[in-house]
Specification:
Blueprint lengths: L7 H24 L3 H8 L3 H9 L6 H10 L4 H8 L2
Helix pairs in contact: 1-5
């Protein structure tokens, strides 16, 4: 049975998630933050933060912006994530 091709939308979503996780890990390391610290800054449970990391499409825009503020992301970082 032939393998199904991924739709362009699905490919783009996966690429955005990869870029998000790259920036997330780099920033987390740079600021030496633990998951519980990040969750507290976002005012969400650690399980919710794990859910966001596991499925980038579920992160609320306000939490995404707060995360960017926490990590001091620049416009270039946001652009890199969304123009993947």
């Amino acid at each position: 049975m032939p393998r199904l091709k991924k739709s362009k939308a699905k490919q783009l979503e996966e690429k955005r998630e990869e870029r998000f996780l790259e920036h997330y890990r780099a920033s987390k390391s740079q600021f030496r933050l633990k998951e519980r610290d990040i969750a507290a800054k976002l005012d969400v449970a650690e399980s919710t933060l794990r859910k966001y990391k596991g499925n980038f499409g579920k992160i609320r825009i306000e939490d995404f912006c707060r995360l960017g503020d926490t990590f001091e992301w620049t416009g270039e970082v946001y652009q890199d994530i969304f123009e993947a």
